[in-house]
């Protein structure tokens, strides 16, 4: 009876977790698709696949900073491999069996050995995850590493990072409680490496208590995993999934490349060579909007970047504007873009799929300020540093284009330079005819 009840409960919880997780991931997908789809990111699939394998799976860019890279690899590999044990937990939950895979192979020495080796390997990796998790908590809360203690992380972002690290510890406690309880209950029959060493801690407990410890670990683990799946779309830890598409769809142009605005290119070509007017492409029928004012004007890839950001702060730590005390932090650019996108997404959802202009935008309104946008030197250091190929610079350029070309919002020094460029073809206040005057005398 108890087994049937547990099975029914497991199936109901799995269905509920599946439903809420799907809702969360679909919401993120819909929000990303609010971006414009003008540009395609599907050329050179081999190179893209290569980027994804090296950067997302191989974590190539993380290794510029060796200590956090190693700790991150512990958590990443440990977290991934631990899911193998989840397969058995899942089958047990659905079928009402206990350690179904072990009992399926217990009479075949090689396969039984492989099973014991796999679970023991998971236990050893879990110890590495434990070390890495404690180290990350220490770096954040005791050593207070500067990059992880910046103003933009106050409030929810720092809570989110801590919740996930504590959840890791909780899941590890569940795995060891489940395996050690099981080992103690069956007199070490399974032969797991680490939990076997922990069995003496449970000596003196009767079978009922050992069974309870094992069940608490089992249910605690699966509920933790369900909770993690549902929570992930609301967390910066979504990067563990989005790093893959984000690196695949990343821009393949050289880093210094800045895209032209086709309408302006057309105008300049006509200005430089009026005879080409007949051959020039048609002017667009609709009035053109320059740059981006809100999330709708950014590309879907920019919005995918925003959801993929790990908030690690490597970009801000390398940003010359940030380092010299300017207000700009490229990490905050990504976080603000995601927060505004979330706000827009919630509003559309509340209005049954219709966007009612809320009179706000991504510029100012508590998001990205004009001061931040003006501080960027377009040096690309943030793009170079990002471990998952995010470009805060692309968003900055688009927002700045809008400020200048739509709002004429530029400091006087810049306006003078723009006028010189237009009239003299150079940033200086000299006529084109005087260009060669320097050689006189
Ligand atoms: S491109 Fe701009 S935001 Fe990025 S590092 Fe350079 S100055 Fe900072
Ligand atoms: S943009 Fe990249 S480097 Fe910057 S915080 Fe996000 S993930 Fe880290």
Low-confidence stretches: none
Shape-level CATH architecture of the largest domain: Up-down Bundle
Strand content: under 5%
Please report the number of helical segments: 18
By DSSP, the count of extended strands is 0
Structural class based on helices, strands and sheet pairing: mainly alpha
**C-alpha Rg, in Å?**
28 Å
Characterize the largest beta sheet: strand count, sense, and whether it forms a barrel.
Answer: none
Helix content: 55-70%
The general outline is elongated
CATH class of the largest domain: Mainly Alpha
Which ligands appear in the coordinates? iron/sulfur cluster
- CATH topological fold name of the largest domain: Fumarate Reductase Cytochrome B subunit
Secondary-structure topology with pairs:
Elements: H1 2-32, H2 45-57, H3 66-95, H4 100-105, H5 109-141, H6 156-185, H7 193-198, H8 207-231, H9 239-248, H10 262-272, H11 300-308, H12 314-318, H13 320-323, H14 330-350, H15 370-375, H16 381-385, H17 392-405, H18 412-424
Helix pairs in contact: 1-8, 1-14, 2-9, 3-5, 5-6, 6-8, 9-11, 11-14, 14-17
The protein binds iron/sulfur cluster (SF4) (2 copies).
One iron/sulfur cluster (SF4) is lined by residues 309-315, 330-331, 334, 385-386, 388, 390, 392.
């Amino acid at each position: 009876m108890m087994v049937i009840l547990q099975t029914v409960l497991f199936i109901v919880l799995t269905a509920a977790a599946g439903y809420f997780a799907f809702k969360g991931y679909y919401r993120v997908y819909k929000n990303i698709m609010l971006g414009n789809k003008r540009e395609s990111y599907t050329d050179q699939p081999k190179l893209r696949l290569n980027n994804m394998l090296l950067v997302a799976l191989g974590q190539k860019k993380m290794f510029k900073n060796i200590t956090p890279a190693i700790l991150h690899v512990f958590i990443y590999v440990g977290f991934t491999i631990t899911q193998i044990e989840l397969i058995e937990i899942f089958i047990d939950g659905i079928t009402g069996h206990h350690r179904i895979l072990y009992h399926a192979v217990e009479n075949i020495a090689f396969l039984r050995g492989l099973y014991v080796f796999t679970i023991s390997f998971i236990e050893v990796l879990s110890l590495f995850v434990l070390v890495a998790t404690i180290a990350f908590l220490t770096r954040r809360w005791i050593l207070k590493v500067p990059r992880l203690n910046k103003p933009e992380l106050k409030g929810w972002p720092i809570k989110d990072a801590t919740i996930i690290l504590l959840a890791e510890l909780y899941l590890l406690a569940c795995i060891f409680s489940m395996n050690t309880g099981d080992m103690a209950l069956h007199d070490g029959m399974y032969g797991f490496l680490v939990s076997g060493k922990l069995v003496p801690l449970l000596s003196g407990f009767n079978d009922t208590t050992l069974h309870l410890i094992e069940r608490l670990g089992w249910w605690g683990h699966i509920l933790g995993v369900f909770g993690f799946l549902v929570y992930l779309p609301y967390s910066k830890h979504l990067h563990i999934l989005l790093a893959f598409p984000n690196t695949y769809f990343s821009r393949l142009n050289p880093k210094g490349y800045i895209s032209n605005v086709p309408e302006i290119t057309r105008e300049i070509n006509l200005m430089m060579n009026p005879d080409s007017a007949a051959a020039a492409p048609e002017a667009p029928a609709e009035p053109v909007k320059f740059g981006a004012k809100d999330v709708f004007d950014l590309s879907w890839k920019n919005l995918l970047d925003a959801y993929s950001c790990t908030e690690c702060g490597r970009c801000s730590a390398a940003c010359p504007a940030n380092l010299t005390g300017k207000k700009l932090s490229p990490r905050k650019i990504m976080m603000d873009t995601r927060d505004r996108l979330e706000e827009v997404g919630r509003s559309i959802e509340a209005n049954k799929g219709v966007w009612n202009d809320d009179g706000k935008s991504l510029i100012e309104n508590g998001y990205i300020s004009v001061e931040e946008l003006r501080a960027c030197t377009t040096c690309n250091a943030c793009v170079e540093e990002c471990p998952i190929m995010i470009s805060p610079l692309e968003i900055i350029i688009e927002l700045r284009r809008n400020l200048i070309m739509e709002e004429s919002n530029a400091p006087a020094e810049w306006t003078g330079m723009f006028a010189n460029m237009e009239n003299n073809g150079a940033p200086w206040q000299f006529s084109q005819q005087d260009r060669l005057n320097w050689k006189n005398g």
